[in-house]
Model the fold of this input.
Amino acid sequence: MNNSDLKSTSLYTNYWKKKILNRDKTILLENKLQHLPSFSIKANELHYFNKLTNRNKIAQYTVVTAIYTFLLNKLILDFDGYLIAG
Done:
């Protein structure tokens, strides 16, 4: 790992520390595992999604990312709109 990698890692770490410092806990675990709501979509229910994206992998990724970003924006008040993949 070179010096620029360390600086980059430090920037990410500082960014997330500032984001979560002094914030209320969203999910509290009290001696039991709490599950977040989830759902499944059956393959036969994906007709509109496949029609919308024309089964193009990049278009599918774009649609899923847009929905994910929209939900994050609704759930996290100070969400800046950027998704970072590592």
Notes: The longest helix spans residues 57-75. The radius of gyration is 18 Å.
